[in-house]
């Protein structure tokens, strides 16, 4: 992310994170989900090569693709469980989780190491700790910071320039349009049995229900 992403990292420290790292490089500008996953997978290998679990959000609120987490798992060659709503337990090098589907809730078992994408219902973040707040409030990415937040670029994480950014992104956005939905007309129905049947008849006629 950009330098101002340090504020999110500081918030993580306030809530008890052991350490944080900012992945930032101008050559990452314009990266699509594939290029982003390549960079993040490289950072994971660099920072924690012996990880047990990688936890990602379900999807970002801008692109809304839900692709980055699964693509990271592919780059790391590990299994993945998506749409996790609860991590039940870890036992004998396996994790047992509940995941959300279109038809309900699934109970899934996965072998470690693996990647999870989680929904917002999966966890309520702990409150900021006043001790950590005082300790890390001056943490910064600047070289002379009392507590330095490390910045990693492509060289550190071992990713070639042509694998990320616009050159490494097969997704090309040709056009962006704002869609405005307008009402063509309003039809009122009487609040009685006759009105209910008329509404249902119109819904069937317009193929909105079968």
Overview of the molecule:
With 210 residues, the protein is of the alpha/beta class. The chain has a single domain (3-163), classed as 3-Layer(aba) Sandwich (Rossmann fold). It has helices spanning 6-14, 33-47, 68-76, 130-136, 154-157, 193-205, and strands at residues 22-23, 53-57, 80-91, 94-101, 104-111, 114-118, 151-152. The strands form two sheets. A five-stranded mixed beta sheet has the order 2-6-3-4-5, covered by helices on one side. A hairpin with a 2-residue loop joins strand 4 (94-101) and strand 5 (104-111). It is extended. Pfam families: ETF. GO terms for molecular function: electron transfer activity.
Describe the structure using short key phrases.
Rossmann fold, alpha/beta, 210 residues
Note the topology.
Elements: H1 6-14, E1 22-23, H2 33-47, E2 53-57, H3 68-76, E3 80-91, E4 94-101, E5 104-111, E6 114-118, H4 130-136, E7 151-152, H5 154-157, H6 193-205
Parallel strand pairs: 1-7, 2-6, 3-6
Antiparallel strand pairs: 3-4, 4-5
């Amino acid at each position: 992310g950009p330098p101002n992403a340090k504020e999110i990292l500081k918030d993580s420290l306030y809530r008890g994170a052991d350490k944080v790292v900012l992945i930032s490089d101008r050559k990452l500008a314009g990266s699509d989900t594939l290029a982003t996953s390549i960079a993040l997978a490289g950072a994971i290998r660099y920072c924690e090569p012996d990880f047990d679990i990688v936890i990602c959000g379900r999807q970002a609120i801008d692109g809304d693709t839900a692709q980055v987490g699964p693509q990271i798992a592919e780059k790391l060659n590990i299994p993945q469980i998506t749409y996790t709503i609860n991590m039940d337990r870890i036992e004998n090098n396996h994790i047992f989780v509940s995941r959300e589907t279109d038809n309900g809730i699934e109970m899934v078992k996965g072998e470690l190491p693996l990647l999870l994408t989680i929904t917002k219902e999966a966890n309520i973040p702990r409150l900021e700790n006043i001790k950590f707040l005082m300790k890390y409030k001056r943490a910064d990415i600047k070289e002379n910071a009392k507590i330095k937040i490390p910045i990693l670029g492509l060289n550190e994480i071992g990713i070639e320039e042509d694998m990320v950014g616009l050159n490494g992104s097969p997704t090309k956005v040709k056009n962006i349009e704002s869609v405005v939905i307008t009402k063509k007309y309003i039809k009122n129905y009487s609040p009685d049995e006759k009105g209910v049947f008329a509404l249902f008849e119109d819904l069937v006629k317009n193929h909105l229900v079968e």
